[in-house]
Amino acid sequence: MEYRLLGGSGLKVSALGFGTATFGGSNEFFKGFGSTEIEEARRLIDICLEAGVNLFDTADGYSEGRSEEILGKALAGKRDQALISTKSGFATGPGPNDEGSSRFHLRRALEASLRRLATDYIDIYHLHCFDALTPIEETQETLNRFVLEGKVRYIACSNFSGWHLMKSLAVADRCGWTRFVAHQVYYSLIGREYEWELMPLALAEKVGALVWSPLGWGRLTGKIRRGMPLPKVSRLHTIAPEGPQVPDEFVFRVVDVLDRVAADSGKTVPQVALNWLLQRPTISSVIVGARNEEQLRQNLGAAGWKLSAEQVAALDEASEREPVYPYWHQRKFFAGRNPLPV
Predict the structure, then answer these.
(1) Which residues are designated catalytic?
(2) Coil, strand or helix: which one is 96?
(3) CATH code linked to domain 3-218+276-306
(4) CA-CA 20 to 30 A from 138: which of 13, 103, 174, 306?
(5) Coil/strand/helix, residue 110
(6) Tell me, what's the pLDDT at 342?
(7) Is-cis flag, bond preceding 214, omega within 30?
(8) What is the largest CA-CA distance in the chain?
């Protein structure tokens, strides 16, 4: 397993991380990901540790906290081998202060996550989303205090826009507080918007990307192909409609090339899609999930090798889409001054 620095920090994370949204399955939405319970979770985590995976990602909003509980129990006796990444910000109850990034909510959320995970510290603590109602100074000061208390080692964010992230970094720098070292983002061969602004920002500010849903909400698992019906039992029926909508023809175009590259390289379609991400700038870790041991071992096979430059170029071309304004304007009229494909 390859290890990479997490942004501008000195923390090394495995190039592939393990996402535990499949743990618990407490409602219909998360059952679409999976319903892994403790014994199976222990087995999957053992496989990850044996393969060199050290990053395990969860959130307090996954299955009403059940994901955190199961992860904590499955890591019993192995806590020192694992880096735990969790998040807060989404609603965890019906009250007016049961969501967001206020000092009030973050404090309660952190203490609850620590209890569920059966640990006294979180390695990487994320804001799950940007809270426009809470002053950034209040949020960043609270996160900084968590670090000073030793309850959090590193802080990160997730699903921020460019100005959200830059404003947060600027406030932290101005006040001398701990800054975000990572940003958990949606990025895949059929969702490359991360490249338009967030990737250049991440390069400039040394913010590592932790990629979620790297297989495009299940569309790049090899189960979707031109002229073939969707599998009868698949999260493509339940989870994918909740995510970004992608034209079928565009998916087929990308999958056609994935199929060719997979055949040439002797790898599977998901392994090729994941390996493409591992070669992109700013990527600290690609978070993969699995319902069972077979899926996990296949996903772990995405590491330890590299696509050729020609294969990467073919995938780049197939997945290229014209960006929205102002990025198409920057690309067309000022491309020579921009080293990235934005």
Answers:
(1) 62
(2) coil
(3) 3.20.20.100
(4) 13
(5) helix
(6) 46
(7) no
(8) 57
